[in-house]
Amino acid sequence: MTKTTAMPRANPDDRSRSDLASAKRVLGIESAALAALAGALGPTFTQVLDVIAGVTGRVVVTGMGKSGHVARKIAATLSSTGTPALFVHPAEASHGDLGMIAKGDAVFALSNSGETPELSDLITYSKRYGIPLIAVTGGGDSALAKAADVVLTLPHSEEACPLGLAPTTSTTVMLALGDAIAVALLERKGFSPDQFHLLHPGGKLGRRLLKVADIMHKGNALPLIASGAAMSDALIEMTAKSFGCVGVVDGKGRLKGVITDGDLRRHMSPKLTSQAVDQVMTKGAKSIPPDILASEAVGIMNANKITNVFVVEGGRPVGILHIHDCLRTGVA
């Protein structure tokens, strides 16, 4: 019988130390590259923003391989922050997708070497039709850099891959540069939370940007009673609308005060139902405008220890918001 020799098992502690050392080395290399990129930025960065800001169409972002994956993300980030953009695969561009690029657009091409052959037809097309070409490349003397109208040259940095082959540091730097361009454009345009919400209506982000006007109750759902009315009528209105409160309005429809369950307890007596609402209501009750964020309204209700609040515009109640409305829509 052949005797087999068991291989020694690696010490888990040694393996853990080796794994952490590898991870920290990668992060250190990439952090240094990002610092070098920040230090290298200059007037050319502003030129890139000027070109993109002057685009009347879309920013066509392109790249091959890993640069292509980064290009997709940059296109998505630009689009979501107010700069219309799309990704065009350079190989597909040579087979008909060049038709997606039109005058008024700008081409934003990523290539670490600047010698990506698949970009050649796209470059030629851009030059032929006078479409601005922005290049992001580590090859300052490359074919892409020479053809481009504006070049952002990436500072030389070693790849984090120990073989020096897998795109790691270079793609991290490209991705960060894309974020820097998108955010700088956002700030230059004064892109507002309202505009952001229009482009991000779904998910947690969309919920965070909901306004009071988006979720408040309005119209016939409002519990309102006229000034001078009897408390018996106010109780009927409170019961019918189920908010635990009723707003008191004057002859011009302006909110004079609010009657809550707490006010009822404080004025509880045999004469309560025959009293006028003005004798029971709380004057100067908290109200909010319709155009603030629902998350801000939650903060106001929490600070004032109330569960609902009237939404007022021009002195007149246009809605009512309950804390449960915020919770149901995921605003907290």
Overview of the structural elements:
- There is one protein chain.
- With 332 residues, this protein is α/β, with parallel strands linked by helices.
- It has 2 domains: 27-191, Glucose-6-phosphate isomerase like protein, domain 1 (Rossmann fold), CATH 3.40.50.10490; 212-328, CBS-domain.
- The chain is 45% helix and 16% strand.
- The chain is built from 15 helices and 12 strands.
- It has helices at residues 12-40, 43-53, 66-80, 90-93, 120-128, 143-147, 169-189, 193-199, 203-208, 212-215, 231-241, 261-266, 277-280, 294-304, 323-328; strands at residues 59-63, 85-87, 106-111, 133-137, 150-153, 224-226, 245-249, 255-260, 282-283, 287-288, 308-313, 316-322.
- Helix 14 links the parallel strand 10 (287-288) and strand 11.
- Helix 3 (66-80) packs parallel to helix 7 (169-189).
- The N and C termini lie far apart (71 Å).
- The mean pLDDT is 89.
Features:
332 residues; alpha/beta; Rossmann fold; CBS-domain; 5-stranded parallel β-sheet; 4-stranded mixed β-sheet; 15 helices; 12 strands
Q: Strands, helices and their partners?
A:
Blueprint: H1 12-40, H2 43-53, E1 59-63, H3 66-80, E2 85-87, H4 90-93, E3 106-111, H5 120-128, E4 133-137, H6 143-147, E5 150-153, H7 169-189, H8 193-199, H9 203-208, H10 212-215, E6 224-226, H11 231-241, E7 245-249, E8 255-260, H12 261-266, H13 277-280, E9 282-283, E10 287-288, H14 294-304, E11 308-313, E12 316-322, H15 323-328
Parallel strand pairs: 1-2, 1-3, 3-4, 4-5, 6-7, 10-11
Antiparallel strand pairs: 7-8, 8-9, 11-12
Helix pairs in contact: 1-7, 3-7
